[in-house]
């Protein structure tokens, strides 16, 4: 069943939590934020608005990552209210996770009121830069993904629509089901805790896939230049220098793309065309070649070499090294170390 049995369930402190006990309201009276505190101020992000407006009365948890492709997420338990959300430079994806059987979800994003029930798994989009009005009846738990316009621009590059609101308009009229986006949002919520060293990389990949899929879902077509994109030699050299100088650190495709002066999308395509392998594969080869050099010409331990070459753990290094060379680091060292 999709019903929620305990709307005031206490949240665990595994992330930055902004929780408040819902105000005692009668079931037939909606909370309202018609005062200027909610709509008269300019907000830079939706999370800030959600924490400090009348939404603060509802239990909520906030997560997100900064990095090269920043995003935010909110898990919130909402009940009856009548609120207005201001224009914010973020596209918001709303995914109901659970709801009571009898509920109502009404919204107006500037083109008239629309009505439906909040059904778990059926999504709704509010494009950046649009004010929206919400009338909600019945308890539900929502997962919100907050996509800054700058992040979408970084991912899409020249494929970024000139008018994002118009491009996503078809996804604002009704709720819709998309297991790929729903599953991606749930996995992104877990990855945003960054408990695993590779979680930021995983989150970056999920985010790129979700943004691209979202535009495809909306039926967006853009006039993009499909000609071969070339990276000048001096920019490829800069990419190599950045990789060499920071090989012991976590290096994402976004960092390499920035060094090349391209969007992530165009860099990945152009780099693969020119170099003959994906940026990830090229970077992994670079790490393994550096590891070979240290195995052959130093007395460093396997753990030290793994750290120096940017691997999160010796076990990860050993697994990748054997996959790419057919031998473990110790076996390779025995055959190749002079003397």
Automatic annotation (TrEMBL):
<protein>
    <submittedName>
        <fullName>AraC family transcriptional regulator</fullName>
    </submittedName>
</protein>
<dbReference type="InterPro" id="IPR009057">
    <property type="entry name" value="Homeodomain-like_sf"/>
</dbReference>
<feature type="region of interest" description="Disordered">
    <location>
        <begin position="1"/>
        <end position="39"/>
    </location>
</feature>
<dbReference type="InterPro" id="IPR020449">
    <property type="entry name" value="Tscrpt_reg_AraC-type_HTH"/>
</dbReference>
<dbReference type="Pfam" id="PF12833">
    <property type="entry name" value="HTH_18"/>
</dbReference>
<dbReference type="GO" id="GO:0003700">
    <property type="term" value="F:DNA-binding transcription factor activity"/>
</dbReference>
<keyword id="KW-0805">Transcription regulation</keyword>
<feature type="domain" description="HTH araC/xylS-type">
    <location>
        <begin position="237"/>
        <end position="335"/>
    </location>
</feature>
<feature type="compositionally biased region" description="Polar residues">
    <location>
        <begin position="29"/>
        <end position="39"/>
    </location>
</feature>
<dbReference type="InterPro" id="IPR050204">
    <property type="entry name" value="AraC_XylS_family_regulators"/>
</dbReference>
<dbReference type="InterPro" id="IPR018060">
    <property type="entry name" value="HTH_AraC"/>
</dbReference>
<dbReference type="InterPro" id="IPR018062">
    <property type="entry name" value="HTH_AraC-typ_CS"/>
</dbReference>
<keyword id="KW-0804">Transcription</keyword>
<dbReference type="GO" id="GO:0043565">
    <property type="term" value="F:sequence-specific DNA binding"/>
</dbReference>
<keyword id="KW-0238">DNA-binding</keyword>
């Amino acid at each position: 069943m999709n019903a929620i049995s305990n709307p005031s369930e206490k949240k665990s402190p595994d992330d930055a939590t902004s929780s408040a006990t819902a105000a005692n309201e009668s079931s037939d009276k909606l909370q309202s934020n018609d005062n200027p505190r909610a709509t008269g101020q300019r907000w830079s992000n939706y999370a800030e608005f959600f924490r400090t407006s009348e939404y603060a009365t509802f239990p909520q948890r906030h997560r997100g990552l900064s990095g090269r492709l920043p995003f935010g997420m909110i898990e919130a338990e909402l009940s009856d209210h009548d609120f207005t959300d201001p224009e914010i430079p973020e596209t918001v994806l709303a995914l109901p996770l659970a709801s009571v059987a009898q509920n109502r979800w009404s919204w107006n994003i500037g083109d008239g009121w629309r009505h439906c029930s909040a059904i778990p798994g059926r999504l709704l989009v509010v494009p950046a830069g649009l004010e929206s009005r919400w009338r909600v009846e019945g308890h539900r738990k929502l997962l919100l993904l907050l996509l800054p316009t700058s992040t979408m621009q970084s991912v899409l590059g020249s494929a970024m629509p000139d008018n994002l609101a118009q491009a996503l308009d078809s996804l604002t009229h009704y709720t819709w089901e998309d297991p790929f986006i729903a599953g991606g949002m749930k996995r992104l919520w877990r990855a945003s805790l960054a408990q695993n060293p590779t979680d930021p990389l995983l989150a970056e990949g999920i985010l790129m896939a979700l943004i691209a899929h979202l535009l495809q879902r909306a039926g967006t077509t853009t006039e993009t230049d499909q000609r071969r994109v070339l990276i000048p030699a001096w920019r490829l050299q800069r990419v190599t220098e950045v990789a060499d100088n920071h090989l012991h650190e976590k290096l994402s495709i976004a960092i390499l793309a920035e060094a090349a002066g391209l969007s992530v999308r165009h860099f990945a395509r152009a780099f693969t065309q020119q170099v003959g392998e994906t940026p990830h594969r090229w970077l992994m080869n670079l790490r393994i070649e550096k590891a070979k050099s240290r195995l052959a010409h130093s007395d460093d331990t396997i753990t030290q070499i793994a750290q120096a070459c940017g691997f999160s753990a010796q076990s990860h290094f050993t697994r990748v090294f054997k996959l790419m060379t057919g031998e473990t680091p110790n076996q390779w060292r025995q055959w190749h170390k002079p003397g």
